[in-house]
User: Fold this.
Amino acid sequence: TGTALGPFMALSGFPAGDESITKVYYSDAPQRSHQDRESLHTSLRTTVQFLHSALFEIVNRLIRSGADERTLVLQLSLRTLATNALRSGMQVDFTKVVDDGFADNLAFVWMRLSEPFTNDARLTRLARVDPDWVTMRALRSVADGGLNDDQSHISTYWRELTRIDADKEQIDAYLEQRLRDQMSSDGGFIPDCFFTTAVALHLGLVSTIARYIDMMKQIGRFKNEIERVRNSPGTLTPAQRANLPLVMQRWESQLQDMKREKCAMDAQMLDPRRLICAMVFYRFVICFLLRQVDAQGVFPQQAFTMPAENGDVNAAEKWRMLPEFLIEDAIEFVVFVTTYAPDVLTDSTAQVGDDGLRMFDDILPLFIVTFLARPKLIRNPYLKAKLVDILHYLTYRDPREDDDYVDTLGGNIPGNIRLHPSIQQFQANLDNNTLARAYLVPALVRFYVDIEQTGSSSQFYEKFQTRYYIARTLRALWARAPRYVEVTRRFFMQSGLGTSEATTTGSTRRDQRVIEEFVTRLMTDTTYLLDESLSKLAVIRDIEKRQPTAEAPAAEGNDSDDASRLDDAESRARSLVSLANETVHMLAFLSRLVPRPFQASEVVSRLAAMLNYNLQQLAGPKCSSLKVQDMQKYSFNPRVLLSELTSVYVHLGLPTGKQQPAAALIEETEAIDRFVMAVAEDDRSYSQALFDKALYILEQRSLKNAQSLTRLREFALKCQGAKVDSRAM
Assistant:
């Protein structure tokens, strides 16, 4: 900020730059209507737009003055960004870095400067951006054809950046080798502008997005805590209840302050003009990344070719050495826009590009599918999980409208909940994408398995969240189009084939390993999630039975632990039950579609034991302890769980009735006998009485039709006969 341009860059529409924005301009914004708040936003955005235009004119004139002036502006910008690198950290000390307004202004100016090549419909100048820009320009002095400053702030920053797929030793060796080479950049201003804009957005908009999302979460948690205390005064001690009015008044005041700050941030963070400009730039970034991994290295001038699983991607070493923030920021930005400003996704201005190169219709589906189908291209599992997040948001189906339960009567009536038009449009985009149709389902199945081997133990529940998103996405795809069901069937049938056209990793053996591990993981998850879900519901029921009321309040020092335990149990139950629902549904769906992998000798005993154990949980003597006061609050429907779980027995334990060659019929009979025997020989949980109880519940509650009940009885009798034969032996 200590330059002639600094004070102008410091002007800001962000609340951190001017407290009066929150305290005066948005003083009563939380109480105003949405229309009134939008009017306030528009006025402030217009002022900021005028500021951005003025700053752009100044910088643009300097850059166009000559080569020396252009180099000085680049150095000034890159040095400013390098010395404010801490803005991208988790906990930012704003006494040591520029505020959000300064960083946003600088990023917006550079986005405007990049428009001549990012707005190009065919991206004809993309090839001029060399992935080795860091060693050619950022690490070399001006005398050697680079941009590094005298204090080496620029080179130090770019040298220490995390790379897409390289550790520090590999990075140092690569950079030293490249610095010894005689290299020169012939891309002109375009690569300089591209990388400067990318890092300006990294330390500007994207860093601010992270803090904005954190602020939203804090407001949500604070509101929930206020509501909890207000609605449950009986859980407080007499001393706490005496101070409650004063405490609530103070909390409400704090909440209003937080809401005012949110309104002020909304004006900037949800500004369509800013987000559309960023969307256009990230279209260029994503295409640049795709070009580096394109098997032919010519995208977007020619159609994208999926790289081989273990083959050398184009300029593989250059790809691995690219700064990770390029792909991370593109993903984070799309996640943000998808969640908070979905209108931007389908905005015609943001959809710049010819047919095949539009951001939302073409580039985004290709980006997601490529890096999920070729997971080795990205080392960081967090980024791959974020791609799944985007898929889940853009193929979203509200669980309250599920009407596709397996072999189960009833269900919900879809269409009551309005979803954003971008969801329908994105699903159509996937349908029209050749690579998505071939690779997406197998890639999701593979990542369901692979995520278990990534991350630390502290990310245990995050892994389950990702698996939930994968399950919901697969469910949406299966319900949408038969082609996705067929791709799934062909992929899983590889467990019994030597070769298959459905191979997606370049190795049938590798695909078969994924399938085997997926079946094992599905069994393990089903047991864990149902166990944990039911235990949390039992805790909730126990606490609800002795919940204090206003007439019978808690004694001093008593029941405060109950309130804490109830909060924890309710929070965990909501997520665990949802995860259990999807895991059981996926097991029921896949066992009907492709029974053979679930009947394999390597897994059949464990699968049978898992099914019997969970049948005991849902239909055994303990099932009555699962009835909590508000079942819908936790998405808990034990009847549907029981119906879908019992359908697995039928899928694996009775013939399908389809016409098959004689050899296939023999194989099916052997697989069925193997499963039936495994169920009957499970001494821990199997009993005929348990099946009788399950059949009674299913019939009484009209959960299955007569044919399904008959088939389940037939299976139960087969198990009973197998048990008798087993004892006789």
